[in-house]
Specification:
- By secondary structure, this protein is an alpha+beta fold.
- The protein folds into two domains: about 5-155, Four Helix Bundle (Hemerythrin (Met), subunit A) (Up-down Bundle); about 170-225 and about 305-460, paralog of FGE (formylglycine-generating enzyme) (Alpha-Beta Complex), CATH 3.90.1580.
- It contains 14 helices and 13 strands.
- A four-stranded mixed β-sheet has the order 11-10-9-12. Strands 5-6-7 form a three-stranded antiparallel β-sheet, with no helix packed on it. The protein has a two-stranded antiparallel sheet with strand order 1-4.
């Protein structure tokens, strides 16, 4: 059996994880809330490449938890003889999921309850590092599917879910005009940067491990591209001007007959956008969302800019000018990269876990929020909203770091190391805060504009 010592991190790191039992209960509560208001008719969704049947996805969340904790970790027999044939995503092709003989809705919910009950009964109050690792893996998986449930609701124009949330978390600062410190670029000197997670930290396989990359001087925008900036590009004919698009991007635009971002429409002289089932005017001073990599690249060409690499993004999120100046002079062997990575911040603002003052996360507010929504979000170089609000496309292809070794769940990263996948960083308004850190790498194909993604840019 693979263990966190060999597959994910040091035993000490997993031993530091706390409150995993409470987190598993919280994740399940969110999963159920995301579907509890849907009718049986809504659960029978059309077959689309970008979503899963909700009933299948619910069962898959329970299956994953059962497989890795009850069966793989604890050696228990399957709860259902047909579970692997129904919900193992590695074996059940996406297009076949609509034709499976799934249990009834109540049957699937009962399966979810039974799995979680048995997990909580089987695990001791004090978890071993190996137990903590596989609980963490199931927790992260359920949180990620919670975000997928959210953009499924957006895709199908269902209402926003009714979520339970602590009242104190809703007291976000009032939004207003774009703050002066969010304008323009932050110039950053080049040098050797330790990209990736520090050995011994909690991380997925695609974050491991820190290694030196050489960066030139660059200047990165202090804020993500806004709705108004995207509207200016659109109004100036950006979707019809071939010179702003790559060959692949132009082919995508023509196939989709895209004339503007997804979920936008004209109402006289005003742009509206759809948030779940409601059409609203474009929000001011707010990062644009639901744009794909091709659209982000085209906007950058129009603006005379470019997308940041993931190393540039991580540097801007992880250091301040003084600490970066000290690191730039270090030698380039692997041991030095590991030591240097230990000096990076976990979050742009430091080590304190995200709160509503730091980042727009956890669906405490529905949709991306204006830049004034977070008062303590600044990184060491003064960038705003690096964590939360919208996932940010980067220029980087999703590829393994040197010495990559797959973790026990081998299909998490390895199958997606292909040229069409690009790295996204930072999380979005619906991402659970416990998922994130500066080294986290998300990945989608370049055409995906249904996911909760925007972008920031760099000067050329």
């Amino acid at each position: 059996m693979s263990s966190p010592e060999s597959a994910a991190s040091s035993p000490a790191a997993w031993g530091r994880l706390e409150n995993l039992r409470e987190a598993l209960l919280d994740a399940r509560r969110r999963t159920l809330e995301l579907q509890q208001d849907l009718s049986d008719q809504q659960m029978r969704v059309p077959q689309l490449r970008i979503i899963n049947p909700p009933l299948w996805e619910l069962g898959h969340v329970g299956w994953f938890q059962e497989f890795w904790i009850l069966r793989h970790l604890l050696g228990r027999p399957p709860l259902r003889g047909d579970a692997d044939q129904l919900w193992n995503s590695s074996a059940v092709a996406h297009d076949t999921r609509w034709g499976l003989a799934l249990p009834s809705r109540e049957g699937v919910l009962e399966y979810l309850r039974e799995v979680l009950d048995r997990v909580l009964q089987a695990l001791p109050e004090k978890l071993t590092p190996e137990q903590a690792y596989f609980c963490w893996l199931a927790l992260m998986h359920e949180d990620m599917h919670g975000e997928a449930f959210m953009y499924t609701r957006q895709t199908l124009a269902w209402p926003a879910p009714q979520l339970s949330q602590p009242a104190a978390a809703l007291a976000l600062p009032a939004a207003g005009a774009t703050p002066a410190d969010a304008a323009g670029d932050a110039p950053i000197r080049g040098g050797r940067f330790p990209l990736g997670a520090a050995p011994g930290s909690i991380a997925f396989d695609n974050e491991k491990w820190a290694h030196w990359v050489e960066l030139g001087d660059f200047a990165i925008a202090r804020a993500p591209v806004s709705y108004s900036q995207m509207a200016e590009f659109t109004d100036e004919g950006g979707y019809r001007r071939r010179e702003f698009w790559s060959e692949d991007g132009w082919q995508w635009r023509e196939r989709q007959q895209a004339e503007h971002p997804l979920y936008w429409r004209r109402d006289g002289g005003t742009w509206l956008h759809r948030q779940f089932e409601q059409w609203r005017p474009l929000p001011e001073n707010t990062p644009v969302i639901h744009v794909n990599w091709h659209e982000a690249e085209a906007w950058c060409r129009w603006a005379g800019r470019r997308l940041p690499t993931e190393a540039e993004w991580e540097l801007a999120a992880s250091l301040d000018p003084d600490s970066w100046k000290a690191l730039r002079t270090q030698a380039g062997d692997p041991a030095d990269a590991a030591a240097a990575a230990m000096k990076k911040r976990t979050f742009p603002w430091g080590e304190q876990p995200p709160s509503p003052a730091h980042a727009t996360l956890d669906a405490l507010r529905i949709g991306p929020q204006p830049l004034m929504a977070c008062s303590q979000d600044r990184g060491g170089f003064g960038l705003r909203h690096l964590i939360g609000n919208v996932w940010e496309w980067t220029a980087s292809t999703f590829a393994p770091y040197p010495g990559f070794v797959a973790d026990p769940y081998r299909d998490y990263s390895q199958p997606w190391f292909t040229p069409d996948y690009r790295v996204l960083r930072g999380g979005c308004w619906a991402t659970r805060s416990r998922l994130l850190r500066n080294t986290w790498r998300n990945f989608y194909t370049r055409d995906r504009n249904d996911v909760l993604a925007g972008f920031r840019s760099c000067a050329r």
